[in-house]
């Protein structure tokens, strides 16, 4: 049973598969960047620029079932992904995805080359 002061009660949950194949259920604060949620829960993601879209070290592979449910990437994000390793059609930068209630259940995998 959640505590009354539980900040994650009713929060959207992001399902993140780490590079070792384990899936983590991460309650997320609305308005945070997905990259911040991943770091806050202690998963291994470099995210060098801290969310400024100035690197590609928060690269993730989004489950294809979610592709049409996410906002389209900006030109800046697309250009930055050129610097990433193992880029796929479902590649996104986690710093460019903001947590909203509509992202509840989002599934993604940490891309290779983003470990600290």
Q: How would you sum up the global shape? A: globular
CATH class of the domain at 11-48 and 90-116: Alpha Beta
Largest sheet: 5 strands, mixed
Biggest β-sheet: strands ordered side by side in the sheet: 2-1-5-3-4
Order of helices and strands: EEHEHEE
How much strand content do the residues show? 15-25%
3D architecture notes:
This protein has helices spanning 34-40, 75-81, and strands at 13-17, 23-27, 59-62, 91-93, 107-110. The protein is an alpha+beta fold. The chain has a domain at 11-48 and 90-116: Ubiquitin-like (UB roll). Strands 2-1-5-3-4 form a 5-stranded mixed beta sheet. It is globular, with a radius of gyration of 14 Å. It starts with 12 loop residues before the first strand and ends in a 6-residue tail after the last strand.
Can you give keywords for this protein?
single chain; 116 residues; alpha+beta; Ubiquitin-like (UB roll); 5-stranded mixed beta sheet; 2 helices; metal-binding; 2 iron, 2 sulfur cluster binding; metal ion binding; Beta-grasp_dom_sf
Task: Describe the secondary structure blueprint for this structure.
Blueprint: E1 13-17, E2 23-27, H1 34-40, E3 59-62, H2 75-81, E4 91-93, E5 107-110
Parallel strand pairs: 1-5
Antiparallel strand pairs: 1-2, 3-4, 3-5
GO molecular function: 2 iron, 2 sulfur cluster binding; electron transfer activity; metal ion binding
Keywords: 2Fe-2S, Iron, Iron-sulfur, Metal-binding
Cofactor: [2Fe-2S] cluster
């Amino acid at each position: 049973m959640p505590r009354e002061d539980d900040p994650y009660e009713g929060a959207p949950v992001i399902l993140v598969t780490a590079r070792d194949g384990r899936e983590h259920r991460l309650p997320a604060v609305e308005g945070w960047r997905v990259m911040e949620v991943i770091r806050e829960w202690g998963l291994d993601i470099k995210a060098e620029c801290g969310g400024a879209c100035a690197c590609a070290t928060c690269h993730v592979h989004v489950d294809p079932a979610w592709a049409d449910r996410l906002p389209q990437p900006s030109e800046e994000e697309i250009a930055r992904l050129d610097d990433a390793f193992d880029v796929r059609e479902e590649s996104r930068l986690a710093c460019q995805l903001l947590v909203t209630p509509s992202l509840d259940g989002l599934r993604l995998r940490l891309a290779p080359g983003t470990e600290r």
